Amino acid sequence: MDRTGGSGGGSDRRQPEESKPLLGEMSAPEGNKMGAAPCRRALLHCNGMRYKLLQEGDIQVCVIRHPRTFLSKILTSKFLRRWEPHHLTLADNSVASATPTGYMENSISYSAIEDVQLLSWENAPKYCLQLTIPGGTVLLQAANSYLRDQWFHSLQWKKKIYKYKKVLSNPSRWEVVLKEIRTLVDMALTSPLQDDSIHQAPLEIVSRLLSENNNLTTQDHESIIVAIAPLLENNHPPPDLCEFFCKHCRERPRSMVVIEVFTPVVQRILKHNMDFGKCPRLRLFTQEYILSLNELNAGMEVVKKFIHSMHGPTGQCPHPRVLPNLVAVCLAAIYSCYEEFINSRDNSPSLKEIRNGCQQQCDRKPNLPLRLLHTSPDLVSQEATLTESRLKPVIVTSNEIHVEVERNNTANQKMTAGVGNDSEPNLIDCLMVSPTCSTISIELSPQADRILGCYVEILKMLSDYDDWRPALASLLQPIPFPKEALAHEKFTKELKYVIQRFAEDPRQEVHSCLLSVRAGKDGWFQLYSPGGVACDDDGELFASMVHILMGSCYKTKKFLLSLAENKLGPCMLLALRGNQTMVEILCLMLEYNIIDNNDTQLQIISTLESTDVGKRMYEQLCERQRELKELQRKGGPTRLTLPSKSTDADLARLLSSGSFGNLENLSLAFTNVTSACAEHLIKLPSLKQLNLWSTQVSALQLRLRAGTSAD
Length: 711
Fold this sequence. Notes:
Strand content: 5-15%
Number of strands: 15
Strand order of the largest sheet: 5-4-3-2-8-7-6
Helix content: 40-55%
Low-confidence stretches: 1-46, 350-439
Oligomer: single chain
Structural class: alpha+beta
InterPro entries: CMIP, LRR_dom_sf, PH_CMIP
Largest sheet: 7 strands, antiparallel
Radius of gyration: 38 Å
Protein name: C-Maf inducing protein
Mean pLDDT: 76
């Protein structure tokens, strides 16, 4: 009786496993890298068939007890066979039946299975497997050849994985362990089974091995990483393995393993990960990998090349998950820079308090051992004295983090005036209640400072890509940074570049994210406006933000009222220095009667007349006002419909032929007018309704053109 000859799956499958190493021959010498292994592994597939890994299924079972020397005689005796139907489950340790009766009353441990073979000799039962166990044989009969082969490969896989868990759980010599790991990887890569667990199971075995053995050398670490590298090409590393990779990145950031092995792994994580919340160690591994790139000689240049490789050479990144994942990594890394400081304080100020200079810190009672050091007992009397120019600083020390908060009398006056009104202002309506000019300086440890610099620089890189900027602006609109970061001068100064890029982008979906995400919350416009906690210039960024917002349907009376209420002083100062946007703002405030106080109006007029551009725009405003009053005096019709197919020239000719000061309703439906007609429409002082149905101009284009014409 020939068990190894014949057809039915190839002789290598039916060779008794006792005559082979644990998982067959090594695919490469011990000293070789795993990079060339896949070429040889492809040759091991016999027929190219693929099977899904079975966990359970229905099959016929027959158990024959016999001495091995009489096996052939018993197998050829058909009258001795009795088949039982069973629903078998391939567990991690054994094969068990859902109905433990008859042949399968007891489960069969994988350690008790000596061999798994396909029956292919003469008179053998059709579509059968033979499991050799001590003292007998278990025959499994499937419905067809494909199902038989599926059971065969699944049983082989379960049996070998079980053996590897046993072998690698008690390592003796690491040279032997490394060989077994390479053979395990080779088995996973060449298996005809297709299932997520085929590659994950070896990774989990290696991960458990590394977590239980902390005395490995750096060379052992790198050898293991190189050995399992082929499995990581299409699979995320498990959590324990991520922790091992993080440790390697921290201890040997300049190792070539980081570049050659970890780079494709991190690229796959950034391209395919859907939620770092479910696998936070993947995010930590990505974070440590980027920091290790920053430790190379080229530093941020290497990081920049990596970001560019993630975006791709074209103008549109083909992977939609890359940007959200990169931003998530950056936000987590920036938070970690301030985490020690945040955890050491129960008095962490709210964003409103930071905006108001942390005035309320002394009113709180710290209850941690590490607390704010109170100033002298006469602090209250000093705060009440308006002649004092400075107060004693409040100092917070948390290991290597030092925070010094200085308050001036202006801050205390505003704090006193605000007592009894703790509600947050509607920041969409009033934009920003100007914060005090208090100074908050935070000094981080050298390591935290390097991390902060690296990831803020990555945010700058992301903002330079046009296709990423809308999504980046949307992700950053809620200001997803800790309050301590917004109080850190270095952080807000570095992040200013990103906000500037948003302010320069002409797309409304980008620069509209400068405003607060909802009422009662601060936005970047508020934080970087004069008097804001992040403003470190004389209003240049503020002027840029106002300019881009004014050009995108924000030229409304409500917007101007908010500026007049909270930012009139900075607007007048910038207009006095010749900023054209602020000159336009002041002219619009006069034109729309935003300012009621006569003295303030005269001051605005004086400011406008102090510069050439202001003087010119104020004269144009006065001329328009005279023309409007003249039109209103003459009167005219209240409703007018322009004939269909009329052009801009026809509209101009009609409006110049008579008096239309009382015109309230104008219909341009089904005409050929364009946005150029805005320069004529803005001269109609009483116009309330405008019909643009079936024309070539939209309301947005008309409003933008009207704003340009008004200039």
